[in-house]
Amino acid sequence: MISLTDFLIVSAVLFCIGLYIIVSKHNAIQILIGIELMLNAAILNLVAFGKYDRFNNGGQMFALFAIVLAAATTAVALAIILNVYKQYKTIDPGKVDRLGD
Amino acid sequence: MNLMQVLFYFMALVTLASAIFVAATKNLVRCIFMFFITLFGLAGLYVLSLADFVAITQIVIYVGGILVLILFAFMLSGKETLNIIAQQKKSFISIKNIPALLLAVLFLIVLINMIIKVDANHLGWIKKAIDFKNNIQPETNMTENIGVNLMTQYLLPFEAVSILLMVALVGAAHLSRKERRV
Fold first, then answer.
1. Residue bearing the bigger pLDDT, A84 or A101
2. Confidence (pTM)
């Protein structure tokens, strides 16, 4: 059997890659991808521990809820990104520095 | 080293390699499609963790929904994003990226250290779960159990998520509608 520590290490590495993407990229879509990677690392942890809960399914159930919430987040974030593009003609978060009047 | 372990290491390699490629590449289209590979690899890891229903949901929602949304946003935001990408013609480790890399690596060291100290295989409740035969065996059928639990024990979170999905739907439609001139 695969030990839990292996799953945890894979998810830690994924989380740190997501962190690197969020901090270093200059593009709102890539930052969104980084957030999705971090969310997926968390979901992998939930699923790996959910193996030891057969009757209540706590881990798998909340992994499903987290996936649905990530979908909702992405839809709203992409609508916001499109609006920002319409207003500023760029999606670099460092250049969005004026308030819309 | 049985087949399951070989598959696990293969899936982990595919997932991590494509994630690193997503972080390293300058081309946004390649970045999105490698993210696709990462999500498939993660679905494989879920299957190896005996959560087949979550894996199918991952493929349907992430690959079918979120990725198409990201591609749409990329195409609708037009030429300017491509110009931004073309401007940063530096290598992976440029002087601007060193703080980010340092942050990620230090955080990784902290996390790995903590994981090794916790030693998750010998936690108390996991041993108890194995003693009471509460762990999922490869031959158990989990989907039925998930359905029954979703309608009984987890009914309140389920309804809350449904309301939140509706709010997100209305909000996204409101945000992206055309401005009407009065």
1. A84
2. 0.88
